[in-house]
Design brief:
Non-ribosomal Peptide Synthetase Peptidyl Carrier Protein, Chain A; mainly alpha; globular; single chain
C-alpha cells in the first residue's frame, strides 16, 4: 500500500481538482469545495479500497492526507 494510491483515489472524488494537485502534506479539509459530503465520501472510499472504516474521531483528528494514510496503515496491521 502506498500513499500515492490514496492520493489518486481522493483526487478522483473531486472532479474539479486537477490530477497531481494533492501531496501527502496537503490538508484535505482545505481542498476547494470540501464539505461534510466529501468527508462521508472519504470514509466510504477508505472502507471500499482498504477495508478500514474510519471513525468520526479519526477523521476529526487527521489533518493531512499523510495522517489519513497512517491511520489506514496502522489499522491494517
Amino acid at each position: 500500500m502506498e500513499i500515492n494510491d490514496l492520493i489518486k483515489y481522493i483526487e478522483s472524488e473531486f472532479d474539479e481538482l486537477p490530477k497531481g494537485t494533492l501531496q501527502p502534506e496537503t490538508s484535505f479539509r482545505e481542498i476547494e469545495g470540501w464539505s461534510s459530503m466529501h468527508a462521508l465520501l472519504l470514509i466510504a472510499l477508505v472502507d471500499n479500497h482498504y477495508d478500514v472504516l474510519l471513525t468520526g474521531e479519526e477523521l476529526k483528528n487527521a489533518v493531512t492526507i499523510r495522517d489519513l494514510f497512517l491511520i489506514i496503515v496502522n489499522r491494517k496491521s
